[in-house]
Amino acid sequence: MKAFNPIFLMCVCLGIGTGCKTTDLSSDTIKNNIPAKYTVNSDSSQATPEAWRKLIFDAHLTALIDSSLANNYDMRIALQKVEAARAGIKFTKGIRLPELGVNVAAGQRKFGKYTMDGVGNYDTQFSPNISEKQQIPDPLPDYYVGLQTSWEIDLWGKLKHKKKAAAAKFIASQYGKDVILTNLIAEIAGAYFELIALDNELQILSDNINLQQNALDVVIIQKQSGKANELAIELLRAQLLNSKASKAEVTQRLVECESKINFLCGGYPKTITRDTGFTSTYMNAGFKTGIPSDLLMNRPDIRQAEMELKASNSDVKSAKVAFYPSLTINAGIGLQSFNALLLFETPASLAYNTLGGLAAPLLNRRKLKADLMSSRAEQKQAYIHYEKTVTHSFMEVYNALNNIKYTQEMYDLKKEEADVLKQSIVTSSELFKAGRAGYLEIIVAQKNALLSQIELNNYRKRQNTTLINLYRTLGGGWQ
């Protein structure tokens, strides 16, 4: 009978595997669909976000950010995820090289009497005299010291694709850490500006409480002289109590904001040192937005999604070539003897073996098909996730740019309104003293002035947080 040709088997298996066609889902199509500009009037020059230390020049905020980067719980977890991905790199680093190990073994074998080994004779002394032949020792010792190697030759690139997938996943984990870092800096800065806004709101309420108390004192005096009645006193006192209740509420919000910052820094509640002047903490708004395609390089979440897509492409290729034949070579060399004293007698004790095998799946390939199906689905998910991340990133920058534009406009109008209403308090007080205005005008003037000042304070906070958000959406913070 003619010997079976292994090349024929390889060709058969290769023909079976070619039915599992795979294609890379490239990110180039998504990149080419990005608009050229965010808005009609947006900056079209290429730009890279500057380091956050150059944009935030408040020493207290810088110290808080440094503390959060070192102690934040999410950052520490992200660093461990990077280490876990690094383990995958180490595992695949030499995956295409032969495995080599040391094997030291000692044992005994007991043969049954009615077996070939049990009834056979063997000259364990290698004696030339037939009469000196001895029966095989029972039990038979066995000692072995040697090297064992196993090598899967990467014929179709399966191991190469696994190595590429591990490398891409490791890089993706690093960008995942950078995403957390960027969001953490933005969250700390936003909470810091909120804390300052609450300080200013407390000061506004305190100033208005003093004004309301003075107005109440005036009305009490006027009632004693018959120029006012009890209703005026009750309404002004109610307004004063409302302002005091608002102050208590803002104080509670301030405590919660401080606790939030402390938690982000990985610590327990304590007073946060800050500068209450907005001018000293207002971020430098002079950085360039650049063109939308800059997001592909500047945003860590986009780069993470791209690396995950590359890893999924490699996983699909690896799952495909698993249908092809695999060539494995096993070999060993060492010293073997049934007598420990003769173990190192060379070359008599030298023992070696070698075996090369070509194996390919033919029937019952459900696991391989399931792995390929799962890899393809994950590849499509990674592609959709990348497309979603790019689109969402563009929308974030677009909204942030418009938010800055309209927030500035709202702030300018609200500031003008607040100045007018602050003057109305003085005017109403003078008219009330002259008897040309009632106490209701004072109440309305004080209420409107208080609301406008609080809204103006919130607009200033919104300007700061909007700039922080724009900086984050452009991909700044992690460099």
List keywords for this structure.
alpha+beta, 479 residues, 4-stranded antiparallel beta sheet, Outer membrane efflux proteins (OEP), 4 strands
Task: Describe this protein's structure.
- It is a single chain.
- This protein has 479 residues and is an alpha+beta fold.
- The protein has 2 domains: 19-96 and 157-324 and 365-473, Outer membrane efflux proteins (OEP) (Up-down Bundle), CATH 1.20.1600; 98-153 and 326-359, Single Sheet (Outer membrane efflux proteins (OEP)), CATH 2.20.200.10.
- It contains 13 helices and 4 strands.
- It has helices at 6-17, 28-32, 52-55, 59-71, 73-93, 116-119, 158-224, 230-264, 278-281, 295-298, 300-321, 366-433, 439-473, and strands at residues 99-109, 140-153, 326-337, 350-359.
- It has a 4-stranded antiparallel sheet with strand order 1-2-3-4, with no helix packed on it.
- Helix 8 (230-264) runs parallel beside helix 13.
- It is elongated, with a radius of gyration of 39 Å.
- The two termini are 70 Å apart.
- The model is unreliable at 12-19 (pLDDT under 50).
